[in-house]
Amino acid sequence: MRDDQPTADLGFARVDLDRERRTGDPEVVYADGKTPEQVVAILARLHDAHPTRAVLATRVSAEAAALVAAELPSAVHDAEARAVTLGPLPTPQGRVCVVAAGTSDGPVAAEAALAAHVHGAGVERITDVGVAGIHRLFAVRDRLDDADCLIVVAGMEGALPSVVGGLVGVPMIGVPTSVGYGASFGGLAALLAMLNSCAPGVTVVNIDNGYGAGVAAARIARRAR
Amino acid sequence: MRDDQPTADLGFARVDLDRERRTGDPEVVYADGKTPEQVVAILARLHDAHPTRAVLATRVSAEAAALVAAELPSAVHDAEARAVTLGPLPTPQGRVCVVAAGTSDGPVAAEAALAAHVHGAGVERITDVGVAGIHRLFAVRDRLDDADCLIVVAGMEGALPSVVGGLVGVPMIGVPTSVGYGASFGGLAALLAMLNSCAPGVTVVNIDNGYGAGVAAARIARRAR
Amino acid sequence: MRDDQPTADLGFARVDLDRERRTGDPEVVYADGKTPEQVVAILARLHDAHPTRAVLATRVSAEAAALVAAELPSAVHDAEARAVTLGPLPTPQGRVCVVAAGTSDGPVAAEAALAAHVHGAGVERITDVGVAGIHRLFAVRDRLDDADCLIVVAGMEGALPSVVGGLVGVPMIGVPTSVGYGASFGGLAALLAMLNSCAPGVTVVNIDNGYGAGVAAARIARRAR
Amino acid sequence: MRDDQPTADLGFARVDLDRERRTGDPEVVYADGKTPEQVVAILARLHDAHPTRAVLATRVSAEAAALVAAELPSAVHDAEARAVTLGPLPTPQGRVCVVAAGTSDGPVAAEAALAAHVHGAGVERITDVGVAGIHRLFAVRDRLDDADCLIVVAGMEGALPSVVGGLVGVPMIGVPTSVGYGASFGGLAALLAMLNSCAPGVTVVNIDNGYGAGVAAARIARRAR
Amino acid sequence: MRDDQPTADLGFARVDLDRERRTGDPEVVYADGKTPEQVVAILARLHDAHPTRAVLATRVSAEAAALVAAELPSAVHDAEARAVTLGPLPTPQGRVCVVAAGTSDGPVAAEAALAAHVHGAGVERITDVGVAGIHRLFAVRDRLDDADCLIVVAGMEGALPSVVGGLVGVPMIGVPTSVGYGASFGGLAALLAMLNSCAPGVTVVNIDNGYGAGVAAARIARRAR
Amino acid sequence: MRDDQPTADLGFARVDLDRERRTGDPEVVYADGKTPEQVVAILARLHDAHPTRAVLATRVSAEAAALVAAELPSAVHDAEARAVTLGPLPTPQGRVCVVAAGTSDGPVAAEAALAAHVHGAGVERITDVGVAGIHRLFAVRDRLDDADCLIVVAGMEGALPSVVGGLVGVPMIGVPTSVGYGASFGGLAALLAMLNSCAPGVTVVNIDNGYGAGVAAARIARRAR
Amino acid sequence: MRDDQPTADLGFARVDLDRERRTGDPEVVYADGKTPEQVVAILARLHDAHPTRAVLATRVSAEAAALVAAELPSAVHDAEARAVTLGPLPTPQGRVCVVAAGTSDGPVAAEAALAAHVHGAGVERITDVGVAGIHRLFAVRDRLDDADCLIVVAGMEGALPSVVGGLVGVPMIGVPTSVGYGASFGGLAALLAMLNSCAPGVTVVNIDNGYGAGVAAARIARRAR
Amino acid sequence: MRDDQPTADLGFARVDLDRERRTGDPEVVYADGKTPEQVVAILARLHDAHPTRAVLATRVSAEAAALVAAELPSAVHDAEARAVTLGPLPTPQGRVCVVAAGTSDGPVAAEAALAAHVHGAGVERITDVGVAGIHRLFAVRDRLDDADCLIVVAGMEGALPSVVGGLVGVPMIGVPTSVGYGASFGGLAALLAMLNSCAPGVTVVNIDNGYGAGVAAARIARRAR
Fold first, then answer.
1. Residues of H113-138 as b/e, b for ≥16 C-beta within 10 angstroms?
2. Which residues are in the PurE domain (chains A, B, C, D, E, F, G, H) (predicted)?
3. What H or E segment, with its residue span, contains residue A208?
4. How many Å apart are CA A202 and CA B144, to the nearest integer?
5. Whole-model pTM above 0.90?
6. Same domain, D63 and D100
7. Does residue G187 form part of some domain?
8. Helices D106-118 and D210-222: crossing angle, nearest 10°?
9. Which of B91, D140, F89, F153 would give a disulfide with F100, using CB separation of 3.0 to 4.6 Å?
10. Residue G8: how many CB atoms within 10 A of its CB?
11. Which residue segment(s) compose the domain that B31 sits in?
12. What whole-number distance in Å separates Cα of residue A183 and Cα of residue A175?
């Protein structure tokens, strides 16, 4: 069943079914602050409207994931990314490379990777290449250079985008994470560092916002030659 | 004369002549904090190394612009962008659209536009389409949709990227400006707003950093199909 | 029984029974940080003093709501608004329209709506009209224009008041909410955005302060022609 | 000559001639950051479009005021408010009372008063009634009570709205000013104080934003019974 | 048993037994972050050294209070102040008046009152006289005027010290509390307000620091004529 | 000529002539932001009302001081304190000791000393006893102990009140100064340090607020036995 | 068994086995945010690579410590420091002295001491010598002077490094701790104080970062004559 | 003439002549905020007390430098470092290496280098090795490794210490500079980055505090084997 009303009123939410027509991508469920029942209902409604293309829910709690598994058995749960997809993933166009500085940045990197994939890009992940052991980064330089868009995930001092941006000229999106303590102020130190990067062309998203980076990177990669 | 040493030591600066090979783009002169003589010398050295492609100096003071005009007569001064180029501009590939919310955001938008052009993209500007008169934005919707990358420049509450991001799915870079007063805290309000945009896929650069947005947008646009 | 002492001393609180005479509205119970017993006692005392007009308690916990239900059976609990009223609601004068950007802003919008109602205004609610799907806002433009006062509730980047303020000239109160994460800093991003709105005449209350917005809006609406 | 194009393109600005139709009030010139010539040109264009109703420019420098006086001799300069009007002021409807805590808050109070007047309200000013000499406030209580809307202007600790809000129930808009030093942080202390006022129904605008308060107050007052 | 070593080493702490000689007052136990056993041990050691004068522990948890009750049966627990005293209270000299704006400021006011008493002053408390019902403050003006030192406790916008400081010239110490939400930022709004008070001579202590205010006030009061 | 109206309206200011009756001290002129003519007029009016007791103007610019000298020849200018007095200084009661950490803290210390003197206390100054050369502090320990109230002035890390507060039990007021750079943030570092002092009973005033400290200290000292 | 691959890929982490060759010290496990199983696996792998020299895990939870005890019985748990070592501690070279202001700073001081020991220095601890009882500090002056590097740990106002830095010229590292409340803002007050110390040569690490201070101090001490 | 009084009272300052005995290094003149005459007088007095060892003044303005040249002809002015020395420089012990990320960091690096030299260490400088062209850093790796202490100076995102700290294990002091704009907040971004460095053992001084880093580094280097 295909939809033609632009908005679906579920009582607790008005789902924007017109968004794919305007922007090329369906609406996504930000599950934090919604009940498991609401997450299931919105996912189901979005899937009805977009049956041939995967829809996505992010920040899915364990309880919500369990109810999704019970009610929507074809849904797929990505535990590391704390996300759920429903429907067939698109054929990848272009290549996004997700680079993470440390092990603890894993969940944010996983969310970015899944979001990029759901939004139509091929995705590769490179992990644990923080600047304190920079030889690990040089070993993967060619893979960085071959990507259509880079997502660089780092907490603490957030230095990785500056170093990567001096090595390759690929479009790059920095994702500061809340990994750190004390004067990291919940990711503020990494955010400010990325905004002040001396490497030209680094763009930044909100702290821990792997999803936003994934959407932006997919849009860049899938229109690349 | 073409260069093959990776670094040119001018005494007061070590110019990275290898950057174009690594990243595809030559080094750029950030003129703020340098003397007019230094700006001239670095520009000249970069032009020697990259004679067939324009090199760029940003944040150029009136004094520095005057000395550049005297010493490097083929240089071109863009007064609105407070920038200078030296050498032939590249043939544009792809199209960047620079959208500015208000008249006072003009210098930052101009810097973004020039930087995108110097880095190889075609550029179009749309000005004074702030969200308090949103009909002006709808009138240009098609031009937004046709771009390969959008740069959206706004001060004060920085709301424009969220509205644009709900209308089109083109890759977008928000540039917060320091336009505002009181609790705008020199652009912090606009920066936070853009980082927290509810529109998916908005990426952000530093306050007033038109240059960085231009580089990133050109890299996205020039590899677009 | 009508009161004529200006202050009622309950031991743990001194209830300002004179406030209605000075300002037109009785004191309200802010239940957060009070025991369920204290909430019940103050509500009962206020009701004694103002028997013909509903009195209000806000930020009422589930425990306090349960005790109120047991001890004051005529009280009405509004679970979404986390609030309780006791006594007959006034005949509405004027019309307040409460507009919320997202589903998660619901509790704050509900508190605003109930407070406006208890303070004497008629109230209408419009939900889920965030700026990323702005067509939803245009669909309700006439309802906005017909109100005597607007309350506009939004978290994240807090852009909705700016857009609404460009569409209609109705008095408007923005309520930033703590919905968001990372660099939203508990609602600070939305607060700053609303304070810096480029739309003329936007006024603002504290983060999540639906109550304050409701009182202000009712005072504006009920004196409107 | 009356206008019917919604936007007037002056090259350096696109003037929103449709705003009065949408919101009831014409666009206003924020002169800060514009050249004297630009201020003159926009004022003239707005006056052409709204010949029977005063248009306003705020934050007008001495230089800009001089050029306005030379080029638009019928314009009126309010030096205390740092503002200029052009065209006949409207017949006042309703009454706004502007209350200022200290002498140094004068310019902001004057801007608020003029903006309220230009936007159609009658205006009364009460000055120098700070909370450290609170008897001065009680002496004017009746005048506060008779207003349709109060604008309360204060710097330093910003306590005046709380005290006024406990005395009368008139709609009130607090304007924090940058008057103060040290830990006032350019008006932040007063802004936070007003946002946290224990008096119900206080709304707030940006630091030093007399203009915004005046617009909001006029809209409230002119629709009052 | 009287002590003559200046420091008593308990292993987990070095108790400063010389402080009374230097400053006139014994050391006090800040119990937060110490185990119940440690609180008991330090209290006991201080009591040994100062048998004729009450010693004090503040921020005492319920568990620590229970163990103190079991181990040191002559200790007295002040539940509202979350504090314990051991030994005879001194004969009061001078009079401290503790004024609190709201019910929720009670624990901080109680800690201040007890600390002032333990440090040698007579203490009177006045509660719930916030600025939104300022007639309650005028009713107690004489009691304020008769004190040797005032402690004024307030959260939210922290306006009470400014109003009190305009009524009387008694030495005054403001105590901002963390009562509030949103942009109160855990008491920061009240702290900044008190630091910027327009009333002359207001001094301030840390957020929620009733103890510090009590010590300072007692030292002022007990040396008053 | 003695005054009996409580308020003197000078047009640009309403002078609170009743303040001495309420609080024991006349109003003081904060000259910053006032014209030299205004400073002269208010000083003259206050002197008329309080002819037998010195009145004070603080933050007096060189221009204002020159006009005061010309118009009010009996006025006395304290250049270090940037202040002016007019009228006979009171007979000192009690003793205030003003201690400053460094040479650059001199102007703030001088303002504190003069304010204390004008408000009725005897004053002694001790300078350049910063904690990095702590032997200088021990050399003056007896003078600290003999005071009725201490004012401790320090910028940078603001450590001096903590050290002094461990040596003597005299009432103490810390004055953070804006001396410092980088992460001193205009005195914020010193302010936070003093608010968090581990020495009991330290109270604090605003950054650079020597005047406020002087008033508070004089009130404490002049009522001391 | 000695390793010669520079990186060991454990799936969830890439252990930098080359770090000792580059920097002289093996990688350390920051256990916060890792599962007990991960902590055990990385510790075991590091021990394999560095069998003759102790490896370290910091911020070890009770659960992780229990699993380490079960799986790696030769590991040693330092409960105060919340850390675990595995393998023989090196022969100490040079002497680090860890000075803590208060009892609550104990865990951070213990982490610093253990880290310094593991990284090759001899370590001495001095506790509870806060500036409010400064005689305790003078009593240990010789021990401070004899050290090769000092680590000075303090929360609240963070004044101890300034006082120590005025007494001795030994290299010194300040560690601000999160001990405090209210306007200590989680250690920010102490951090700013140490950064602004008037004593020459004070260097600082992140809030609560005992580990970092220990590494730096050991590197200084072990190369001292 | 050699001194034996510990303090020299110049009226405007008390010079700590005992500091060299306690800490090994004489007092230094921080010239900012002092008159040229005061700078000359203190320098002369310090030179009298320490005739065989250079004394130092930092943050010396052009005016002060000119007066020093006239009055103390043997003084040496280091224009880049904005500093003056008087007396023979010590024989260098150990080696400090000062590494700067960019040209604009030059003055801070120069101040650090001179301070290290004056305090007894040999000094080497490496400039313009920012992380965006990291090959320049690898080219000097051996020189980094051979130093006894590193001073790493960087503005903007402050990433250089993290990269250097992953390459060598030499004691390192990071100096954040105020180079940058927008969200660099005067060096705050670089400061936070360095405090959160993922490289072990990085210590930090205040923004632009080259002097402090130089003192600390010299103390480390001159006691190295």
1. bbbbbbbbbbbbbbbbbbbbbbebbe
2. 94-225
3. none
4. 22
5. yes
6. no
7. yes
8. 40
9. F153
10. 17
11. 7-86
12. 18
